[in-house]
Amino acid sequence: MKVLLINGSVLSLIQRMFFSAGEKVVNKPAAAICVCRRGGATAAYQTMNMPFQMMNMPVVTSQYWNIVYGREKGQATLDTEGMQTMRTMAANMAWLLKKIHADGNPDYPEREEWQPMHFIR
Predict the structure, then answer these.
(1) Which of 3, 20, 38, 45 is buried deepest, with most CB atoms within 10 A?
(2) How far apart are CA 59 and CA 57, in angstroms?
């Protein structure tokens, strides 16, 4: 029960930070990374990506989900597939940033004004 409460609190904090940041984070590439002992990484990874998707942020991916497994200090570095996934994600982030800023002036897409839809009339 404590773990769920802590995760819920962290998610709430992240969502409030992104909401407060508003336009400052739009078009900024982002990547979520999870390090865990065993289960639960995919749910945490999905949850951490949600704010990026809601704020028009390109999500940087890898060859697999950005997850590394390890319990004790230093054990995550023994996850060879996880470490390769992190290196690939880092290379993809660097590549995307170079492309966005290739000529020194980012060419972001134009955005339509948000039009919320309410189904209850």
Answers:
(1) 45
(2) 6
Q: What pTM value is reported for the model?
A: 0.79
Tell me the three-class secondary structure of 52-90, residue by residue. Answer: HHHCCCCECCCCCCCEEECCCCCHHHHCHHHHHHHHHHH
**Among 100, 102, 118, which Cα is nearest to 26's?**
100
**CB neighbours of 54 closer than 8 A, spacing ≥ 6?**
18
Helix, strand or coil, per DSSP, at residue 93: helix
Burial class (CB in 10 A: 0-12, 13-18, 19+), 98: exposed
b/e per residue 15-30 (b: at least 16 CB within 10 A)? eeebeeeeeebeeebb
- The dihedrals phi and psi of 79, each to the nearest 5 degrees, come to -80, 90
The β-bridge partners of 59 are 30
Taking the chain (121 residues) in consecutive chunks of 10 residues, what is each chunk's mean pLDDT?
51 79 88 86 85 90 93 93 96 94 83 84 66
By the 8 A CB rule, do 42 and 48 touch? Answer: no
